[in-house]
């Protein structure tokens, strides 16, 4: 069964992609525990960087729900090996697959998730990553972002049985996915705090926390604004306050 957040803090997933040392990872995760944020995002490089720590019986990611942002788009056997290894290291709650993956791989992921239903593992579809702007989308695929998001989401829903997706937090993209699947569970990255600039920001389709939630996002994925700050807990609390102000959760 798909886990769902019960309060504003639980609607935040903190990306650990930019955390480069174990002491910093310990500091960030301790801060998240203190303020009641229990979901983190990792990619393969994160697992590899901290693999020795994660192999321990009690490790720094214990009790966190882990969003595995692997964007699987490979052969079925390779995907399954990687997925099994990830599950041996962390409490993998969500795993991403790309809308351009082969049908065989999407079917293999669908079957794997069904077999591990008791763990709460959920396939999350990735359509068009948020670093892609409208002009690039048209030039590369001959479609608007809107059209490409809808097309890939249909493929993921049909072949991987995905009913959770990563999308930009814009009203347009969220409405596309809600039209296709009214009960879709939506994760929105590219969250930026008003008045705070990020160096080397590589995202194109970004929104503020308030915009993402007001537009219909279920959870927000926030990375650099939190983990690069000297006080991660304070940033998370500020984001949670903005979420609660838009749509208070009992």
Characterize the structure shown.
The chain has a single domain (9-246), classed as TIM Barrel (Alpha-Beta Barrel), CATH 3.20.20.70. β6, α8 (171-180) and β7 form a beta-alpha-beta unit. It starts with 11 loop residues before the first strand and ends with a helix. It has helices at 22-35, 44-49, 51-54, 76-89, 103-115, 134-141, 145-160, 171-180, 209-215, 224-227, 232-246; strands at 12-15, 39-42, 65-72, 92-98, 122-126, 164-166, 185-188, 219-222. The model has no long low-confidence stretch (mean pLDDT 90). 42% of the residues are buried. α4 (76-89) packs parallel to α5 (103-115) and α9 (209-215) runs parallel beside α11 (232-246). It has an eight-stranded parallel beta barrel, surrounded by five helices. 44% of the residues lie in helices and 16% in strands. It has 250 residues and is α/β, with parallel strands linked by helices. The protein contains eleven helices and eight strands.
Keywords:
250 residues, alpha/beta, TIM Barrel, eight-stranded parallel barrel, 11 helices, 16% strand
List the helices and strands and how they pair.
Layout: E1 12-15, H1 22-35, E2 39-42, H2 44-49, H3 51-54, E3 65-72, H4 76-89, E4 92-98, H5 103-115, E5 122-126, H6 134-141, H7 145-160, E6 164-166, H8 171-180, E7 185-188, H9 209-215, E8 219-222, H10 224-227, H11 232-246
Parallel strand pairs: 1-2, 1-8, 2-3, 3-4, 4-5, 5-6, 6-7, 7-8
Helix pairs in contact: 1-11, 4-5, 5-7, 7-8, 9-11
């Amino acid at each position: 069964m798909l886990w769902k957040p019960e309060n504003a803090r639980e609607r935040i997933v903190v990306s650990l992609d930019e955390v480069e040392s174990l002491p910093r990872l310990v500091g960030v995760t301790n801060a998240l525990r203190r303020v009641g944020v229990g979901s983190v995002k990792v990619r393969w490089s994160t697992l590899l960087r901290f693999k020795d720590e994660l192999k321990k019986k009690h490790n720094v990611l214990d009790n966190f729900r882990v969003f595995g942002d692997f964007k699987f788009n490979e052969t079925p056997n390779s995907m399954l090996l990687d997925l099994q290894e990830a599950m041996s290291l962390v409490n993998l709650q969500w795993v991403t697959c790309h809308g351009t993956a082969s049908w065989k791989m999407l079917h293999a992921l669908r079957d794997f998730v069904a077999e591990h239903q008791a763990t709460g593992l959920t396939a999350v579809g990735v359509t068009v990553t948020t670093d892609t702007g409208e002009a690039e989308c048209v030039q590369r695929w001959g479609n608007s972002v809107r059209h490409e998001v809808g097309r890939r989401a249909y493929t993921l829903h049909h072949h991987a049985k995905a009913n959770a997706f990563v999308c930009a937090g814009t009203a347009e993209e969220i409405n596309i996915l809600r039209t296709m699947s009214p009960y879709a569970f939506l994760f929105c990255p590219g969250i930026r705090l008003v008045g705070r600039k990020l160096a080397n920001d590589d995202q194109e389709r970004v929104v503020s926390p308030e915009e993402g939630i007001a537009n219909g996002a279920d959870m927000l994925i926030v990375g650099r604004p939190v983990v690069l700050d000297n006080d991660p807990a304070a940033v998370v609390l500020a984001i949670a306050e903005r979420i609660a102000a838009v749509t208070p959760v009992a």
